[in-house]
Amino acid sequence: MSNTATPRTLELTEEDLKPRFDYASFEDGEYVGTLVDVEDIDAKKTDNYGWKWVFQVEGLNFGIVTWLKGGGLWKVNEVLNAFGSSLEEGTSRIDPTRFVGMEATVIIATDPSSDQGYKNVARVLPIAERPIFTEEETAAFIDEPSDTGLTEL
Question: For residue 8, what pLDDT is reported?
Fold first, then answer.
């Protein structure tokens, strides 16, 4: 592995050093997240294995774990569906890293078992249909009532 980063001199202000986002003030809800990493995980106690999918939302990373043994495959399928793919009955080979860089709708929720209010991805869904036009652009297409003598329905 080669280290090719060039040392740089930076001029920083106090404002540059303030965090832009923080987990404590992050609200639970529905967001568009970008998949930035998929990690292998092992649960030695249950002899299970799976993937941790890491999504970036507003500059913060949130994860969701999917197990590949037992009853957890539905969640793997949910994540794959969010990226336009799916599992089928039979044997499948899945390379989860091929989805890195793609976006999905993620539901961020506070883990109820966490004393510290830890937040994670509760669900991963396809990106919802978004309006093509902004509210202002849509208003431009709506006819205002006028004195044309026509009856409005």
Answer: 82
pLDDT for position 14: 83
Query: Does residue 144 surpass a pLDDT of 70?
Result: no
Element (H, E) at 39: strand 29-43
- 45-49, 107-111, 114-118: which range is least confident on average? 114-118
Please provide the distance, in angstroms rounded to a whole number, between the alpha carbons at the two ends of the chain. Answer: 71
Instruction: Report yes or no on 118 lying in a domain.
Output: yes
C-beta separation of 39 from 51 below 8 A: yes
Number of domains in the chain: 1
Per the structure, the complete domain to which residue 101 belongs is given by 35-129
Encoded tokens for 147: 């004195």
Whether 86 contacts 77, CB under 8 Å: yes
In this prediction the pTM is 0.70
What are the contacts of 113-117 at 24+ separation with CB within 8 A? 117/24
**When comparing pLDDT for 22 and 122, which is higher?**
122
Is 152 contained in some domain? no
Phi, psi of 43 (to 5 degrees): -110, 95
